[in-house]
Amino acid sequence: MSPKQIVYFQSSDSTQTVLLPPIKPVVARIEPNDILAITVGSFNQESNEILNFANVNSLTTSSYPGLQSAMRGQPLGYLVDTSGHVEIPFVGKIKLVGLTLDQAANLVRGEVSKSLKDPAINVRFLNHKYSILGEVNRPATYNLLDDNTTLPSALAMAGDLTVYGQRNNVMLIRETAKGREIVRINLLNRDVLNSPYYYIRNGDIIYVEPSKAKVTFTDRTVQLIPIVTSITTAFVVALNLLLR
Q: If we measure between CA atoms, which residue out of 192, 101, 122 comes closest to residue 154?
């Protein structure tokens, strides 16, 4: 395999320093069925414990032998109902749908301030995730911690591509308001750094296809299994005859 087939972000420009135009990630907004961690800090410890109950207590999830549950230990959080509201102790129902996390924190702070003095409020998504499948070293579903997670950092979380992964034909599936969008991304080209798919969004699925070399290797391995089995069987039979 030549360097041209595996080196990321290649360019015909031989300049040592390259200045790329800035791009900004799309800021996620709260939607119905989102699960939020809303943490409250104040001088009233008893109120803090009540308000943070959903962030401390975890969901009960099923586990199966040999499998690790990615959801195990996830806090309950505050569920955004179908009307876009969450119900918070001392506050009641408050509408957060359509807001960014910063906007939601400011709104919750204003409502909680009616009961507690100078509360510190933090709001985070608990259910935002992305999945990586195919020819990577650690295929899995990962938590999407913020809007600044990039495609290279997501692949790094998965242990990078294996030697059999097609770096010039990575598939990304994204849910949009118009439906599922399927794009092909060439990691070998520096243009990906300016792509609208450079930043990962909630629900993204990244699939790395195997190269023809992997398919050929797998086919040959399968074809050799009967031959190896036959040779092993013949050797065992011959050995048993000699030992009699």
A: 192
Residue 142 has a pLDDT of: 94
Token pair of 238 as six digits: 């011959």
Contact 54, 75 (CB under 8 A): yes
Distance (Å, whole) CA 81 – CA 102: 19
CA angle at residue 170 from 165 to 175, to 5 degrees?
140
Q: Which CATH number among 1.10.510.10, 3.30.428.10, 3.40.640.10, 3.10.560.10 corresponds to the domain 3-25+128-210?
A: 3.10.560.10
Min mean pLDDT across 11-15, 119-123, 126-130, 239-243 is at: 11-15
Instruction: With a cut of 70, say whether residue 103 has pLDDT above it.
Output: yes
Q: Which amino acid is at 95?
A: K
Q: Name the band, by pLDDT with cuts 50, 70 and 90, for residue 154.
A: very high
- Find the largest Cα–Cα distance for the chain: 93
pLDDT > 70? residue 184: yes
Alpha-helix runs per DSSP H in 24-183 = 45-51, 53-56, 101-112, 151-157
- Asked whether the CA dihedral 192, 198, 204, 210 is positive or negative, the reply is positive
Element counts in the chain: helices (H) and strands (E):
5, 10
CATH topology of domain 35-125: wza like fold (3.30.1950)
Rounded-to-integer distance, Cα 74 and Cα 60, Å? 9
